[in-house]
Amino acid sequence: xxxxxxxxxxxxxxxxxxxxxxxxxxxxxxxxxxxxxxxxxxxxxxxxxxxxxxxxxxxxxxxxxxxxxxxxxxxxxxxxxxxxxxxxxxxxxxxxxxxxxxxxxxxxxxxxxxxxxxxxxxxxxxxxxxxxxxxxxxxxxxxxxxxxxxxxxxxxxxxxxxxxxxxxxxxxxxxxxxxxxxxxxxxxxxxxxxxxxxxxxxxxxxxxxxxxxxxxxxxxxxxxxxxxxxxxxxxxxxxxxxxxxxxxxxxxx
Length: 253
Prior knowledge:
The protein is mainly alpha-helical. The chain has helices at 5-29, 32-88, 94-175, 180-192, 215-223, and strands at 198-202, 205-206, 230-231, 238-241. The protein folds into two domains: 5-25 and 179-241, no CATH class; 31-174, Helix Hairpins, CATH 1.10.287.1700.
């Protein structure tokens, strides 16, 4: 493959732009705010689950409390009616009076038992209410932190994306100056060799694999026409000859 030396030199500009794009993509993926936002989102979700459980328990206890209070009211009303009947003097039968007094005593014991239940349920309700309040406050703090971190993440990502758009535009302009067949080879090699397809030959060393070329290889490159595409024998990347290549004079074994 052949290409004008100027077009070959543009490969180095293109490689630099592609390297910048890879660095920007890495920066975008590596934003600390991404992981922090994900952790905070998990925390908010976990608090939501705890809050739903606490709210459900509080609702159940509230219903239980209303039922217990209703039972107390019913027993109290029944005891009040019986007490009024007893005090009215309308019942004169001794057996009936004894039964009524026994029922009033029984209702009194039942009322005391139910009132004890109400107190226990009220204590449960207070504890659950405090738990719901605590979780609600904790959720608000977590959501606020998540919102803050997300905003910082989005701002940082937008800045990186702006830089990426600018570099991508430069890449498009530079790639348009490179012959299609050379550009196709470059793109193919980039996919094969960790994103680095072209490297300068500097002082007898390939800057792609960082290995020094042998005397024979340097003499062969020196003898090669300037428009001939040269590849590194070790890493197979495109070698771009520069003023710093060290090819100004023949090398003698």
